[in-house]
Amino acid sequence: MDFDKEQISGMKIFIVDDVPSNLDILGHILQRNGLKVSIAPTGEKALELVSLDKPDLILLDVRMPDMDGYEVCRKLKADVHSKDIPVIFITAMADTGDLVQGYKVGGVDYIAKPFHEEEVVCRITTQLKLKRAQDEVIRREKFYRVIVESVPDLIFQLDPDRKIVFANPAFRLLGYDPTQLVGRPIGELIESDNKENLLDDLATRQVGPLAITDLEVRIKVSEEVSLSDQMPTVKINVDSIGLWNVPDEDVFKNNVGKEFLGTLCVGKRAV
What radius of gyration do the chain's Cα atoms show? Predict the structure, then answer.
């Protein structure tokens, strides 16, 4: 069976079990499949080691002396540094209540004793592939957030009621604290003789080729800015696109369970 070894090769697994034979069996299975393995014989030691070398996944025995696996998992999920590490419980129990308890404290799956190599590798591979995909999403989010926070363009998001839910640091150039803009109607920042029609265009629901481009908007300069008397507004050209809970192509379809989430706007200083 193909377990996509190439996709998970080199990822780190942390086994927590007080039975040496279990550590030995699981360790050999995982190493044969290209995974790096570290071990801990107790829950206390596991909590100590996790903070020193963060693994990609933890295999955690349910029944251990002093601190059982459920309590270890609770502590892992309560710590900001380890809460996102997936935990698979190792158990000899087939009782549904015990398995439910594992999921309640934050476990994502379980491996039954005695171990069967195909089952072990299959369950671990599934969770590692999910973990790698989640890590990639987080990496991309961080990358795009750096861009959003560093560009001079005004980037802001509106909810369906046209209230600001996000504003990037470029608003500081106009005298606004981005965090204090959250919750304010965007109309309060706009100067226009025909504001309602302008807001209809700015807070568009349209996507794709029907989205708004180069909409001329005058944004008020905060009175906190020393030159606000001489320059009360700044003209920007805004591109706006509607945000929906379905792909763009489904927005135009009937009989689709779609929900309008708001509008994303990017404004450039007009030349």
Answer: 26
